[in-house]
Amino acid sequence: MPQEELVAHALAAINSERKKFGLEPVALGDNQAAQLHAEDVFRTKQISHWTSSGEKPYMTYTRLGGEGSVHQNVAIAGFGPEEYDRCVSTIILCERIDPLPTIDELQNEMMYNDKECCDNGHRDNILDRDHTHVSIGIVYDEYYLALVQNFEADYGMSVEVEGTKVSIAGPMPAGAKFDNVVVYYDELPSKQAYDANKEKLAYDAGTLAASVFEPLPRGLKYQQPGDYVVIEADRWQDDSDGNLDVSFDLAPAIKEDGVYTLYAMLEDAEGEQFSATSHSIFVKTD
């Protein structure tokens, strides 16, 4: 079956659920991180939010050009590695995958049977009102299907990095207010990271490394909390037309090699906080 038809079916299933709850549809994103992740899951036959190279979803999303904020769902159907090999070799007779009904079944599980396994994390991603796009990865054969949904809050913000100098600029959604930028740290991706985390049902943003706030009046300084760094921005513009323009030096937060991910935090019209970027910066000094 053509990939475009599979993706269109998966997108329609997502937007059907959003419509039931009075939410705007999400548009189909073109970032390829979801497809790459689905291919990785299909190859390893291991459902995971980490790729086999050790990347978390926001790392792959950034590396492949994503500029919004990404939140990932992963689902599989079919047989585990040993059974799969026996199915392929026809040692045993196995039920074959029909892709469209299987996508519907996985979507239904994430919507209506998600509490026990995942504390409704998949459902919350599907029904998040601040998500604007979803990029979808699907890989299948007769005995296994991998489905990855990368939900994005992408309002057109851009992140520019030159050395340790960072600028975040672009439009905010109607009614939203800018809060601050938070920076989280992860170790560099590795096979060891994958092996240690591949069976976890959820992933986090890493360890808080820094918070960025607006410039203080001359002579005043932010108090440093100790377990993370407070960075005073060089530029902080949040105008009445809903445009954001912030710049700062990330250097105080960089203590060691690793991945530093920048989240521009907004408050939407309903008072809920959400991130409009999840931009990963890979720091390796060797």
TrEMBL record:
UniProt signal peptide: none
Any matching Pfam family: CAP
TM segment ranges: none
Domain SCP: 11-151
CDD domains registered for this protein in UniProt: CAP_bacterial
Protein name in the entry: SCP domain-containing protein
